[in-house]
Amino acid sequence: MDKVRVGIIGCGGRSYAHVNKLVDFEDVEIVAVADPIEERRLKMAEKTDAKRIYKDHKELYDNEATDAIDVVYISVEPTAHDGIEEGAIEKGWHFAVEKPMTLDIDQAENIAKEARDKKIITWVGFQDRYLDIVDALREELPKHKTGLVYGSWIGGIPMLWWWLKKSTCGGQLVEQNIHLLDMLRYLYGEPKSVYATASTGIVEGVEGYDTDDHSTAVIRFKNSVTATLVSGCYLTKENPGSHNGLLITCDDMIIDYKLRDSVTFSTRSEVRKLKTTQDHHYVANRTFIDAVKSKDASKVRSPYEDALKTLKLGFAANESMETGQVITL
Ligand SMILES: NC(=O)c1ccc[n+]([C@@H]2O[C@H](COP(=O)([O-])OP(=O)(O)OC[C@H]3O[C@@H](n4cnc5c(N)ncnc54)[C@H](O)[C@@H]3O)[C@@H](O)[C@H]2O)c1
């Protein structure tokens, strides 16, 4: 395969994180774009030089031959995954899809199975797994014993219509702090239980908003690590921001991972700080395209099937928020 032919499904904000990298890859050609919003699909076509422009994924699938596209990039709202991945699998197209991949776990289970059966190469947008500082963190952790981990993602509200409602975004933990949920799994393996609480009442005057203002999830991992992960979306522009990332307390070391920025390893005798020097969106996209070209799915760090485990953890936390029960996984 000289050039990987790509179709873009969803031309909103997030799609550009991928497209901005793909347009510079000499071995990638973006051949088709789709979005129900005309202005967005035309802007994307201009940016990518794509000649085939469609009003949605269905029109793209109806008009594109199976051998005209190798890969689709899917960046749509969490509730808009209406047969998009299933259609790509049927065509035999590999796909990259944004997290959370859907709010319907049965659908996600089915997609994971179908993709596995048809040997489709998949990548879910947990790009933080490609950070150099996360590699350093993963190298350091086995040298110490971790007890407690404190994680946080506290910020404001992304002003997207679908983000404002829990029914269309899944809540902040599932939509946004899923990155740290996934990071915890990447560092510590599989969880055995989760307990979570959520509150509202701080955010006022945002029309249509009904999701949680903040939540706390206590996750126990099979290897005895316990993580407390807090999420908040109530900060106003006046707030200078808070520590987002993970604070990892080991027996003989404190590790401070500042989200997408740096990691600091501290003991009484040494403090070692590493700042990321890497464009992780570049590395993540390059890796996916290389995986497709070499037909080597093992290169991808967050394939659909693995990402599904993170999604299930987020859903279990939501269930705990609703029922007040500890959810065993
Ligand atoms: N990995 C990350 O760091 C990251 C960051 C931001 C957003 N995201 C995720 O990316 C996804 C998209 O977010 P966004 O900010 O781009 O949202 P957005 O609302 O800006 O864009 C979504 C686009 O999808 C289009 N769309 C909906 N149904 C479609 C269909 N059937 N065919 C073609 N296009 C369709 C919409 O018209 C819209 O333009 C969400 O799941 C979000 O959680 C991931």
Question: How do the strands and helices of this protein lay out in sequence?
Answer:
Elements: E1 4-9, H1 15-22, E2 28-34, H2 38-48, E3 52-54, H3 57-63, E4 71-74, H4 84-91, E5 94-97, H5 105-117, E6 122-124, H6 132-140, E7 146-154, H7 166-169, H8 172-175, H9 178-188, E8 191-199, E9 214-221, E10 226-232, E11 245-250, E12 254-258, E13 262-266, E14 271-275, H10 280-294, H11 304-323, E15 327-328
Parallel strand pairs: 1-2, 1-4, 2-3, 4-5, 5-6, 7-10
Antiparallel strand pairs: 7-11, 8-9, 8-15, 9-10, 11-12, 12-13, 13-14
Helix pairs in contact: 1-10, 5-11, 9-11
Bound molecules: nicotinamide-adenine-dinucleotide.
Nicotinamide-adenine-dinucleotide binds at residues 9-15, 34-37, 40, 56-57, 75-78, 80, 98-99, 125, 127, 160, 175.
Any overview of this molecule?
The chain is an alpha/beta fold. The chain is built from 11 helices and 15 strands. The strands form 2 sheets. The protein has a 9-stranded mixed beta sheet with strand order 14-13-12-11-7-10-9-8-15. A hairpin with a 3-residue loop joins β12 and β13. α5 packs antiparallel against α11 (304-323) and α9 packs across α11. The N and C termini lie far apart (41 Å). The mean pLDDT is 97. Bound molecules: nicotinamide-adenine-dinucleotide.
